[in-house]
Amino acid sequence: MAGTAPLDSGMLETPDGQLLHWEVVGDPGGPALLHLHGGPGGGCTQATRRAYADSGYRALLLDQRGCGRSLPSAADPATSLATNTTQHQLADLELLREHLGAERWTVVGSSWGVTLGLAYAQAHPHRVRAMVLMAVTAGTRREVEWITQDMGRVFPREWERFAGLVPEAERDDLPAAYARLLADPDPQVRDRAAREWCAWEDVHVSLVPGWAPDPRYDDPVFRTTFARLVTHYWSADHFLPDGAGVHPGMPRVHGIPAVLVHGRFDVSGPLDTAWRLHRAWPGSELVVLGGAGHGGAGFAEARRDALARFRRLL
Fold first, then answer.
1. What distance in Å separates the CA atoms of residue 289 and residue 180, rounded to the nearest whole number?
2. Active site positions, annotated
3. The model scores a pTM over 0.85
4. Rounded distance, CA 310 to CA 314, Å?
């Protein structure tokens, strides 16, 4: 098995002063690949490195703006999120592609990384060879409403606690209300909001077989970063027009081959999101994993198989 130590890494400065942490793993002579993590705010991990160690690709792993090892960190309440938008991140990806010296690359995304990857492919279709998109999201207002409101019908006790931190008059837009709490001058208010937001994140993905709480939420830096960035993006419709997410731009990716992978038990992100994107994308393939949810059994194998197939076509 190939080693998981990075082939190269660094901090790339953007024109507006962000420092983006990146690293390259896998095969130094392989075709270029871009991995987009979930969240927003999830960052890359040792497990991300392992996923591409034997992939045959030269894989770029990026900690997106404000999270992971990128700076400034969203965990710092003094860090402004004004320049942390989808449009800024798309510019970051082009900057990194040029820095890596890749003419085109295969894009792999998970959860929020699917939305970001599709927005990138729609903006720069000639830069994308193929896509592997897992735990599919589309960045729509309806998806956010489903997770933050409708899932209360599935988990009423837990939702009551989640919503109970917010004044009743503000509960029609929980991401925006939580974003305000996470910007409160009182550190105890901010920490409680981060804890409650991440507790709800754990709940709404918990129907997958074999589920266990995410240990990353025990880290105060991670949970604050994650909660700030998710609520920032969700309360702004992911900085995509009209609450429609990436759906209006799907004609621009019709020539890009893709595999979409989604778990049958993904109740927080129902299968119809992946189905609608697949139906709007000629040549795409939808793989439904019967024993998985928003992650879980089968995802690593489906990604590996899709990447191996695309690599043979290069």
1. 37
2. 111, 266, 294
3. yes
4. 7
What's 219's DSSP letter?
S
Number of other CB atoms surrounding residue 30 within 10 Å: 15
Cβ atoms 165, 281 nearer than 8 A? no
Q: Phi first, then psi: give them for residue 261, nearest 5 degrees.
A: -120, 125
Per-residue pLDDT, 3? 53
Confidence at residue 272, expressed as pLDDT on a 0 to 100 scale: 97
d(CA 178, CA 201): 13
pLDDT along the chain (314 residues), means of 10: 78 97 96 98 94 96 98 98 98 97 97 98 98 98 98 97 96 98 98 98 90 95 98 98 97 97 95 98 96 93 97 84
Alpha helices in the chain (DSSP H): 46-52, 86-100, 112-123, 141-148, 156-164, 174-182, 187-204, 220-234, 272-279, 299-313
The number of C-alpha atoms within 13 Å of 75 and in the hemisphere containing its C-beta is 17
Residue 5's pLDDT is 86
Tokens of 193: 């909001």
Polymer length of the chain: 314
pLDDT computed for residue 91 by the predictor: 98
Q: Which residue has tokens 């990716």?
A: 253
For the chain, which domains are there?
8-140+243-313 (3.40.50.1820), 143-238 (no CATH)
CB 230 within 8 A of CB 238: no
